[in-house]
């Protein structure tokens, strides 16, 4: 298990060239930029876990943007059948309201 990161600072920006948390259950890799004075951010996050993990294999790509104090999340890809089925069931029978998936993910990844 490890935590590693490569960052570069300059002109009020933090450039996250690579931030990696690796464990037996879940790996996370992040790259992106934070505008430090205003707190604006844009980052790509990749979450992966092996099939042998306690909750099954996971492969997700998420884009985090907005500000550090009020981040927004776009789920770009998610490969886990159980999670997709749960979200589909929650949203079945009605058109998804704006933000339903964002709100569900914010609760999941707090």
Structure description:
- This protein has 110 residues and is α+β, with helices and mostly antiparallel strands.
- Helix content is 18%, strand content 51%.
- It has 2 helices and 6 strands, in the order ββββββαα.
- The longest helix is centred in the C-terminal third of the chain and has 11 residues, at 81-91.
Class derived from helix and strand content: alpha+beta
The number of strands is 6
Provide the helix percentage.
10-25%
Give the overall shape. flat
Low-pLDDT stretches are none
Q: What portion of residues belong to β-strands?
A: over 45%
Summarize the structure.
Helices cover 18% and strands 51% of the residues. By secondary structure, the protein is an alpha+beta fold.
List keywords for this structure.
110 residues, alpha+beta, six-stranded antiparallel β-sheet, 18% helix
Secondary structure blueprint with pairings:
Blueprint: E1 2-10, E2 13-22, E3 27-35, E4 40-49, E5 58-67, E6 71-78, H1 81-91, H2 100-108
Antiparallel strand pairs: 1-2, 2-3, 3-4, 4-5, 5-6
């Amino acid at each position: 298990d490890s935590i590693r990161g490569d960052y570069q600072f300059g002109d009020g920006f933090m450039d996250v060239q690579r931030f990696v948390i690796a464990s037996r259950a879940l790996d996370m890799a992040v790259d992106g930029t934070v505008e430090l004075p205003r707190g604006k951010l844009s980052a790509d996050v990749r979450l992966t876990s092996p099939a042998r993990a306690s909750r099954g294999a996971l492969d997700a790509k998420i884009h985090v943007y907005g500000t550090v104090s009020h981040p927004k999340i776009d789920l770009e890809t998610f490969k886990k059948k159980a999670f997709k089925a749960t979200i589909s069931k929650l949203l079945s029978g009605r058109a998804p309201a704006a933000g339903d998936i964002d709100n569900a993910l914010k609760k999941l990844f707090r």
